[in-house]
Design brief:
Layout: E1 5-10, E2 13-14, E3 22-23, E4 27-28, E5 31-32, H1 33-50, E6 54-57, H2 71-77, E7 82-89, E8 98-102, H3 108-122, E9 126-131, E10 148-155, H4 159-166, H5 168-184
Parallel strand pairs: 1-6, 1-7, 7-10, 8-9
Antiparallel strand pairs: 2-3, 4-5, 8-10
Helix pairs in contact: 1-5, 3-5
């Protein structure tokens, strides 16, 4: 039996939308989405590797260029089984919670389990799972991979969500729960 290969996509970062330009994503209170999701990807990578998974990341640090249009291709090139794209939402500080986007019925259960794992560990409000057409874009490039979901961990501009996303203990708990879901495939 071959081991599971999982692609982690910490959203935004260098070259996301334009070559040579850093895309921080959403930001609030001096913290950027790109920073938060990189910390989550690194934590999750460590846990998944301890579980025996091979882990590929679309970007490994803040200087690593990762154009949005190439991220699903990276997962394909490395023969990944599943791709998880990590993001943070923002909406004028008035919205909060965790939501997960997916494409196709084959990814609905994965989206539901990913969302529940994070909500359970962080104690955020569940905003549920949604098809990609319910996002701010009609199609999400990272979902061009057959087994992929996009997780919006929480709202960076909501003080309570941001505090939870930045808490190392809560992040570890959420990543442990996510690893359990991803390892089941």
């Amino acid at each position: 039996m071959s081991r599971m290969t999982i692609c982690l996509d910490p959203g935004h970062g260098m070259g996301n939308r334009r070559a040579g330009r850093y895309d921080p994503g959403a930001s609030a209170d001096g913290v950027t989405e790109a920073e938060i999701v990189m910390d989550w990807a690194n934590e999750l990578r460590s846990i998944l590797q301890r579980c025996g998974a091979r882990v590929i990341r679309t970007r490994v640090d803040h200087q690593d260029p990762a154009p949005i249009g190439r991220r699903a291709s990276i997962a394909k090139e490395y023969g990944c089984d599943i791709m998880l794209s990590l993001h943070c939402n923002a909406f004028n500080g008035s919205a909060n919670g965790t939501e997960t986007f997916f494409r196709g019925a084959v990814n609905e259960t994965l989206a539901r389990e990913v969302n529940a794992a994070v909500v359970g560990a962080l104690g955020t409000r569940s905003r549920g799972i949604k098809t990609e057409s319910a996002s701010q874009h009609s199609r999400l490039a990272v979902l061009n991979f057959p087994r992929a979901v996009l997780l919006e961990i929480g709202f960076i501009d909501h003080a309570g969500n941001r505090e939870k996303m930045l808490d190392p203990s809560l992040r570890r708990d959420a990543c442990e729960a996510l690893a359990g879901v991803l390892m089941r495939g």
